[in-house]
Design goal:
single chain, 328 residues, mainly alpha, two-stranded antiparallel sheet, 13 helices, globular, transmembrane helix, transmembrane transporter activity, cell membrane
């Protein structure tokens, strides 16, 4: 009896840790940074954080869907840069709405290519998106001559630079997209199918789910999110150039993985990705407020993602053991 109770408590603690541990970690991190520098919770600082991290957050929404199906997308950074370049290029002489729409369509186009290569050509997602990343980056460099495009039209910066009562439009859009993504995953048939495909692709196919279409759709959405993120950045800066933010791919993947979405697929949630973004943003801003060397920042980020992967592997292992013990 005592042994059964002990085992039950252990399972419950593990479940609570797996479910809410990342949220507790974010709260602790915020407390530590605030103690180090009380200006962290200043309204202006928080709004600046939301504006700076909006592109990464938008891309993380698409990446979450891809990873939930067991996929991977390394091309998001290249799509992001090319979309920003296209938005700036078109925006110099055309209506900003046309420029923004074209940039998002660019993202959808290359997302479709990724989806087709992964599902129809059956090329490994890692290799596929690595290859398309190089190709897309090359296109951006050819189009720009590896130079920056500057947009002088004030209307172009409305989306990225304007604020409503001090709240940046980009921050509002980020929260809206995260909420919409969470609703889709939790309450729609599409969301349930994504989890099913990530959990067991073959079983999902036998159950009537069009697995190829589901997987391809996540790459298309990821491309669209990257295109929108590129629009955000181009509008914020009123300019764009190839290799706009070399670290953004790392930040996007880290946000999703640190948030607790499993690289094996089938487990995760949009709120987890939101918390992962919060952790990275808090770390980055906290480092700057506390004058931590950029070199140490890179080391700490690397340790965090390795730690997150280790925790993911451990929890997956425990989950498999629990399933085996129940089935006996």
């Amino acid at each position: 009896m005592l042994r059964n109770t002990s085992g039950y408590l252990k399972d419950r603690v593990l479940e609570v840790y797996r479910t809410y541990g990342i949220l507790i970690a974010l709260i602790i991190l915020i407390v530590i940074v605030t103690i180090g520098n009380q200006s962290f919770l200043n309204f202006v600082n928080l709004m600046n954080i939301s504006s700076q991290w909006a592109p990464t957050g938008i891309m993380a929404v698409g990446m979450t869907l891809v990873i939930l199906t067991g996929g991977f997308d390394l091309s998001v950074g290249a799509i992001y840069s090319l979309s920003a370049v296209m938005a700036a290029s078109i925006g110099r002489s055309h209506n900003p709405l046309i420029a923004f729409s074209a940039a998002i369509l660019i993202g959808i186009f290359f997302g479709s290519i990724n989806g087709a290569l992964v599902t129809l050509a059956k090329v490994n997602p890692f290799i596929t998106t690595l290859g398309t990343s190089f190709a897309i980056s090359g296109i951006a460099m050819v189009l720009t001559g590896n130079l920056a495009f500057v947009v002088e039209n004030p209307a172009f910066s409305i989306l990225g630079a304007n604020r409503w009562h001090g709240i940046p439009y980009t921050g509002v859009l980020l929260v809206s997209i995260l909420i919409a993504g969470g609703i889709v995953l939790k309450y729609t048939t599409y969301g349930r199918k994504i989890y099913a495909v990530g959990g067991n692709t073959e079983a999902s196919r036998l159950a009537g789910v069009r697995t190829r279409r589901m997987v391809a759709s996540t790459y298309i959405i990821s491309g669209a999110c990257s295109g929108l993120a590129g629009v955000f950045t181009a509008s914020q800066l009123s300019s764009a150039q190839p290799n706009l933010n070399p670290d953004i791919v790392f930040n996007v993947i880290t946000a999703v993985v640190v948030g607790g979405t499993s690289l094996a697929g089938g487990y995760g949630a949009m709120w987890r990705t939101a918390v992962g973004i919060g952790i990275l943003a808090t770390l980055q801003n906290g480092f700057n407020l506390l004058n931590v060397s950029p070199y140490y920042q890179t080391i700490i980020k690397g340790v965090i993602i390795v730690g997150a992967l280790a925790v993911d592997n451990y929890t997956q292992s425990v989950a498999r053991k629990s399933i085996k013990s129940i089935s006996k």
